[in-house]
Specification:
37% of the residues lie in helices and 9% in strands. By secondary structure, it is mainly alpha-helical. The chain has a single domain, classed as Glycoprotein, Type 4 Pilin (2-Layer Sandwich), CATH 3.30.700.10.
């Protein structure tokens, strides 16, 4: 008596462990590439958002200066009235406006009586850097 295999016997045997491992490794590689691009795009979007936020905050400082007649001592003066600010018509900003997309406080540096700069330290949250880690500085 001869044993013959039915034509569907080969199709019903399933996958070997090596085939499953290869498929999982390929899927993992694809996810790593796509995930890296998503993270990089998010960091670039956060950097643009930080730059826009600094320009908006600079405009709010300009409104404060117009109403009070001078620059604020610190960014908190945009949120609540300092005791010595005659003409204060704020609040000019919300507390949430005083932090960058990476949840670090925006730095306010006065460079004299009539000039200032706003600084966000970038994605790495440290001074200096390249690309999305580069400091974002706005000085109107």
């Amino acid at each position: 008596m001869r044993h013959t295999r039915s034509p569907n016997a080969h199709a019903a045997r399933g996958f070997t462990l090596i085939e499953i491992v290869i498929v999982i490794v390929l899927i993992g590689g694809i996810l790593a590439v796509v995930g890296g691009k998503i993270v990089n795009n998010k960091n670039r979007a956060d950097a643009k958002l930080a730059e826009t936020a600094l320009h908006s905050l600079a405009a709010q400082i300009g409104m404060y200066e117009s109403d009070v007649g001078g620059l604020p001592e610190g960014l908190d003066a945009l949120v609540k009235s300092p005791g010595n600010a005659d003409g204060w018509l704020g609040p000019y900003a919300k507390q949430a406006d005083l932090v960058d997309p990476w949840k670090k406080p925006i730095e306010y540096r006065r460079a004299g009586d009539d000039s200032f700069e706003l600084v966000s330290l970038g994605a790495d949250k440290r001074a200096g850097g390249e690309g999305v880690d580069k400091d974002i500085v706005v000085s109107p």
